[in-house]
Amino acid sequence: MRRILSAGALALAGLLLVTLAPSLARAQTPQTVNLTVTEFMITPMNFTVTAGQPVHFTVTNTGKFPHSITFAKGTKFVTLFKTPIPSGASGTDDFIFPEAGTWQMYCPVGQHAEAGMTGSVQVLTAGTPGMPTTGMPTEVWMPLLALFALALTGAGLLLRQRLLPR
């Protein structure tokens, strides 16, 4: 009887792992964006990412002056590099856009933004690009359902073990 209970618990744990693994892998995979900065342009000027997901930025400065990148939306803003990237150098940084919408992108060094060193980032809600998100995402409710099933099965097995005579 204990072997059957152990095999059942292992099977349910495996089911939970198979259910959770894809969403955990998807959540950890960063989006990658490569930017090139020069006087007075950011290339590409526009790109699209997903809210709540890590974005790995590689910024290459092909200009003569130091440059950096700032993202802003309303009162929220972040500058990727504490020190601007010098001429001929590259830098990498990660950022998670906390909300969907259009974010402004610009170089915060001197008057570079005023000289046209700007762009925009379209941040989509998690889910199918271009489609509205409704309800709870599958990545959330499927693992919760599997966890509930595991807990319910464990409770049933414990109850059965206590009720059966030894």
Describe this structure in words.
- With 166 residues, the chain is an alpha+beta fold.
- The chain has a domain of 96 residues: Cupredoxins -  blue copper proteins (Immunoglobulin-like), CATH 2.60.40.420.
- Helix content is 32%, strand content 31%.
- It contains 2 helices and 9 strands; from the N terminus they run αβββββββββα.
- The strands form 2 sheets. The chain has a 5-stranded mixed beta sheet with strand order 3-9-8-5-6, with no helix packed on it. It has a 4-stranded mixed beta sheet with strand order 2-1-4-7, with no helix packed on it.
- α1 packs antiparallel against α2.
- It is elongated, with a radius of gyration of 24 Å.
Outline the secondary-structure elements:
Elements: H1 2-28, E1 31-38, E2 41-43, E3 46-50, E4 54-61, E5 70-73, E6 76-79, E7 90-96, E8 101-106, E9 118-124, H2 138-163
Parallel strand pairs: 1-4, 3-9
Antiparallel strand pairs: 1-2, 4-7, 5-6, 5-8, 8-9
Helix pairs in contact: 1-2
Question: What's the tally of helices?
Answer: 2
Largest sheet: 5 strands, mixed
Share of helix among residues? 25-40%
Please provide the ordered H/E string of secondary-structure elements.
HEEEEEEEEEH
The geometry reads as elongated
- CATH fold topology of the domain at 29-124: Immunoglobulin-like
Average predicted local confidence, pLDDT: 82
- The CATH C-level name of the domain at 29-124 is Mainly Beta
* End-to-end CA span: 11 Å
Query: What is the CATH superfamily label of the domain at 29-124?
Result: Cupredoxins -  blue copper proteins
Query: Structural class of the secondary elements?
Result: alpha+beta
Q: What's the β-strand tally? A: 9
Proportion of β residues?
Answer: 25-35%
